[in-house]
Amino acid sequence: MSSIAQTTPQVKPSLHKTLFATCIGNALEWFDIAVYGFFASYIAHVFFPVSDPSVSLLLTFGSFGISFLIRPLGAIVLGNYADRHGRKKALLLSINLMMLGGAIITFMPGYATIGLAAPLLIILARLIQGFSAGGEFGSSTAFLVEHFPERKAFIASWQFATQGASTLMASAFGLGLTHWLSESEIQTWGWRIPFAFGLLIGPLGIYIRRHVQEPASFASQEKESAPLKTLFGRQKALITLAIGVMVISTAVNYMLNYIPTYATKTLHLPGSVAFTATLIAGIILTVVTPIMGLWAERIGRLPLMWGSLLLLMATIYPAFKWMVDHTTPTTLILLVAWMALLKSVYFSTVPSVMADLFPATTRASGMAISYNVAVTVFGGFAPLICSMLIAATGSSLAPGYYLMAVAVLSGIALLRCNKRVA
Questions:
Q1: Cα 86 vs. chain centroid, distance in angstroms?
Q2: Would the CA dihedral through 375, 379, 380, 385 be positive or negative?
Q3: Which of 200, 234, 334, 340 is most buried, by the most CB atoms less than 10 A from its CB?
Q4: Residue 190 gets which letter from DSSP?
Q5: Are the C-beta atoms of 77 and 128 separated by less than 8 Å?
Q6: Tens digit of each residue's pLDDT (9 = 90 or more) over 5-45
C-alpha cells in the first residue's frame, strides 16, 4: 500500500483583518508616545517637580528619550524571536508588554504621594514600552509584506498611516481636554484620560492577533538558527542603509510630537492652537499616507521619496523662519501641515523599502534593529535636542536646522538604495 500525503492549502487571509491585526498594536504604541509628548508639561509637574519649570520639562523629555535607549535591545530580542519562532508570537508578546507599561503610567500616583518612587516607576513604564515597541515595527511590517507581497507598497504604508491616526487621536484628546477642563483639572487628573483610553485598545488587539495566521511564505521556509549572527556578520551594510533611509522620517515624526511644547513654551501660543495644529497633522498623515502607498504602486517608490526629501531640504528653513518672524496660530498650523504632508509622501514608502533590503530569514530582526536605532538616535531625543539647542542658542529656528541636517543623511542613504529598490 502507498500512502498519499495530503496537504491543506493555506487560505489567503483577509486584507482588512491582516491590516487591523498588525496596525492596532502599532496604533497603541504611537498613541502612548504621542500622548506622553503632548502632555509633557503636565507630566513634568506631577512626576518631576522642581523649582525651575524648564528643568522639570527637560527631565520629562529625558524620560521620554531614555525609553528609546532600550528600543534597540527590544529590537534585538523580539526581532530575533520573530525570525526564529514566528511573527504571530512576537506580535502577541509586544502588545502585552505595551499594555503593562500603559497601565503603570495611567494609575501611578504622583511625586506628592509616593515621592521618588513616582518618577522612577514612570521611567520603568517607559522602558517597558520602549522594549516592546522595539520589536513591533519589524515583526508587524514583515507580517504584512509577507502576506501580501504583490501589494507591499500600499499595505506597508498603513504602518505609518496608523501613526498618523494615533497622532490624530492624541491631538483630539488634547484639544478636547483644553476646551472641556480647566488647567487645574487637566493638571490634577485630566491628563490621565488619554492613557486610560489607550488601555482599552489593548484587549481587542490581543484577541485579533490570537486569531491570525502566520505568513505562508515564512512558515514554509527553513529558519535561520542564528539570524543575529547572519545580520551582523554579513548584512551590516543593509542595516546602515535602512537606518539612513529612516532618519528623516522619524525626526519629522517626533518634531510633530514636540510641537505642543514648542508652541506654548517657545512661541507662547495657547495650548489649544498647538493641539489644533497637531490634529490637522494627524488627519493629513492618516489620509495621505495610504494614498501615496497606492500611488507608489503606479509610479514607483523612489520618485516619491526623492521628491518629498528635496522639497523638505529646500523649504524647511524658510518655513520655520517665516513662522518665527510672523508667529500666529495660522502660520504654526500651516508649517505643521506642510511638514505632515511631506512626511506622508516619504513615509508611505519607507516600510516596504526597508523590508526589501533584508531577506525573509533576517527581515524582522534587520528591520527592527535599523528602525529602532534611527528612532532612538534621531527621533526619541529630538525634543530634548531641540529644547537644548533653543536654550543654548536662543534661536527659535533650531528645530529647522535639525531637520535639514538629518534630511541630508537620508539623501545619502537613498542614493545608495537606488540600485536595490524600484
A1: 23
A2: positive
A3: 340
A4: I
A5: no
A6: 344 445 667 788 888 888 887 888 778 877 887 787 788 88
Joined together, the cell numbers standing for residue 134 give 522595539
Compute φ and ψ for 223, nearest 5 degrees. Answer: -85, 150
Determine the distance from the C-alpha atom of residue 264 to the mean position of all C-alpha atoms in its chain, rounded to a whole number: 23
pLDDT, mean over the chain: 84
Residues 6 or more apart in contact with residue 358 via CB below 8 angstroms: 235, 238, 242, 366, 367
Question: Which of 88, 90, 71 minimizes the C-alpha distance to 80?
Answer: 90
With cell 504621542, the residue in question is 34
**In this structure, are residues 65 and 381 in contact, taking their beta carbons and an 8 Å threshold?**
yes
The CA angle 157-296-315, to the nearest 5 degrees, is: 85
End-to-end CA distance of the chain: 52
Euclidean distance between CA atoms 275 and 260, whole angstroms? 6
Instruction: Provide the residue type at 37 as one letter.
Output: G
| Nearest-angstrom CA–CA distance, 227 and 398 | 40
Statement: the pTM of the whole predicted model exceeds 0.85:
no
For residue 402, give every residue at least 6 positions away whose Cβ sits within 8 Å of its Cβ, in sequence order, or none. 251, 255, 382, 385, 386, 389
Nearest-5° Cα angle at 60, 58 to 65 = 90
Nearest-angstrom CA–CA distance, 103 and 199 = 7
Per DSSP, 150 falls in state G
DSSP states of 105-149: HHH---HHHHTTHHHHHHHHHHHHHHHHHHHHHHHHHHHHHHH-G
CA distance 343 to 322: 20
232: left (phi over 0), alpha (psi -120 to 50) or beta: alpha
Distance CA 244, CA 377 (A): 11
**In the block, residue with C-alpha cell 527637560:** 58
**pLDDT tens digits, residue range 138-190?**
999 999 999 888 888 899 999 888 877 887 788 788 888 888 988 889 888 99
Rounded CA separation 215/221 (Å)? 10
Using alpha carbons, list the distances in angstroms from residue 360 to 84, 132, 357. Answer: 11, 21, 10
